[in-house]
């Protein structure tokens, strides 16, 4: 099983960051790669579309409001992986009231691509997503 993780310090308190990204259906609010999200099954599943119109369906598998993290599994996507599970976490930074660390990590099995290719793919998605989050919070 392959994995990757990207962390970024963002310019906002952890509760503010979590209020923006902690909703499972909130990706269009901060992630340009996902302009459309539809909540299904009472909010436990999200149907996403990327700018090319490709559909990604994900299921929430763990959610912890108090610790500010959630995990999700991909059910359907145009990515060369299976067994994908990812987690987004917001951490407080001791002594920094107006900053937080956001960590986006995932594990997956390559399917039709090399491990290096899929690690590079998701590292890029996570990095670009956290860069976009930083820009949103800095505005």
Automatic annotation (TrEMBL):
<dbReference type="InterPro" id="IPR019587">
    <property type="entry name" value="Polyketide_cyclase/dehydratase"/>
</dbReference>
<protein>
    <submittedName>
        <fullName>SRPBCC family protein</fullName>
    </submittedName>
</protein>
<dbReference type="Pfam" id="PF10604">
    <property type="entry name" value="Polyketide_cyc2"/>
</dbReference>
<dbReference type="InterPro" id="IPR023393">
    <property type="entry name" value="START-like_dom_sf"/>
</dbReference>
């Amino acid at each position: 099983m392959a994995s990757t993780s990207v962390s970024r310090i963002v310019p906002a308190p952890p509760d503010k960051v979590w209020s923006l990204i902690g909703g499972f259906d909130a990706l269009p609010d901060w992630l340009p790669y996902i302009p459309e999200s539809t909540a299904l099954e009472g909010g436990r599943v999200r149907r996403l579309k990327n700018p090319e119109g490709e559909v990604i369906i994900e299921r929430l598998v763990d959610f912890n409001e108090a610790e500010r993290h959630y995990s999700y599994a991909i059910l359907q996507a145009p990515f060369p992986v299976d067994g994908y599970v990812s987690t987004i976490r917001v951490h407080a930074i001791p002594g920094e009231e107006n900053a937080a660390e956001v960590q986006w990590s995932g594990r997956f099995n390559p399917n039709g691509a090399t491990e290096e290719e899929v690690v590079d793919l998701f590292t890029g998605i996570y990095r670009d997503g956290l860069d976009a989050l930083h820009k949103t919070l800095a505005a």
